[in-house]
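Long-time lurker, first post.

We've been arguing in lab meeting about whether flavin-adenine dinucleotide would sit comfortably in this protein at all. Half the group thinks yes, half thinks no, and nobody has a model to point at. So I'm putting the question to the forum: if I give you the sequence and the SMILES, can you give me back a predicted structure of the complex? Inputs are below. Any interpretation is welcome too.
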Amino acid sequence: MIQEAIRPETILAREFNTLVDEPMEEYTSFKIGGRADLLALPKNKIELTNLIQRAWELDIPVTLVGKGTNLLISDRGIRGLVVVTKLLKSKLEIIGTDADTTTIIVDAGERLSKVCQFAINNSLSGLEFAAGIPGTIGGAIKMNAGTQSGDMSAIIQSIEVLDENTFEINKIEKTLLDFSYRHLNLSGIIVSAAITLKKEDQKKIEEIFKYNLAKRNANQPVSFASAGCFFKNPDIGKSAGELIEKSGLKGVSVNDALVSHKHANFIVNTGNASCEDVLQLKQQIQEKVFAKFNVFLETEVRIEGE
Ligand SMILES: Cc1cc2nc3c(=O)[nH]c(=O)nc-3n(C[C@H](O)[C@H](O)[C@H](O)COP(=O)(O)OP(=O)(O)OC[C@H]3O[C@@H](n4cnc5c(N)ncnc54)[C@H](O)[C@@H]3O)c2cc1C
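Top reply:
Settle the argument with this. Predicted structure of the protein with flavin-adenine dinucleotide, as tokens:
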């Protein structure tokens, strides 16, 4: 009798606590995405390392997701293993302090908003730009998340990264990190970060946080499902939102995917938008903006899946 080979995914699912055929729409703020073959939510570095090491040994592709607030997942879903890092967290700790600064250590799955609150509570300045940015610390570092008033690259002291070749966790100092606009050039998995913040008057910090949050709530469609700004701002002194709005695209839709009336650089899912709907709308936007301004808008949102 000829025995059928067991799929690597089946072996991994037997050895580790994984979910099978998991709908990705539940793991993204866009509420879009087909199913992942396997999905795991490791709770600590050991669980994460063992899982990733085994997946790589079995040649199973691994896709990393934090809180999925910058992701558009395809309707056909993701083959292989999705590792969701949002449970990878431990107590926030102060690891060093001098006259002017304090350094804290944060696990990759911790919410950025919780780190912001910790900074306020401890009178530490440097994260005010991040008021209202959703997602995890790992995702924020990988995306070099930020606003006009700052980004993650300014406050990261070092990160710990699970190396995909050696399966070891290595510390990388900030001088060796290749940050650029909404991007960190890195292939491993961020497991924790040391963040250095400045000591500052608590009232002053709190006021800036409140101001930034109010501005965001006034200008962005925060109550709709989205992945934040869809396109990167081009290098021409005009924002992507301005170019999209001036191309007459506010309110344009493909089924339930809509260019927000409130902020033209947000594509929102008003109900049951598919990835295909969003991609069609994306293309319309890129073509119209290019025809009018001769500028090609690059996506800031990461598109993942089959
Ligand atoms: C309403 C709204 C407002 C937003 N406003 C802003 C804003 O002002 N500025 C801004 O920059 N962004 C903004 N965003 C986008 C998003 O919140 C940020 O990019 C955020 O930092 C992503 O974090 P995440 O955990 O959700 O990452 P995910 O979306 O889960 O992942 C993003 C990328 O990071 C990778 N990644 C995740 N975790 C790790 C890890 N541990 N190690 C290595 N790679 C990892 C993923 O593979 C993926 O490629 C907004 C989004 C929404 C929905």
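For your lab meeting: The longest helix spans residues 275-293. The radius of gyration is 20 Å. Whichever side wins, do check it experimentally.
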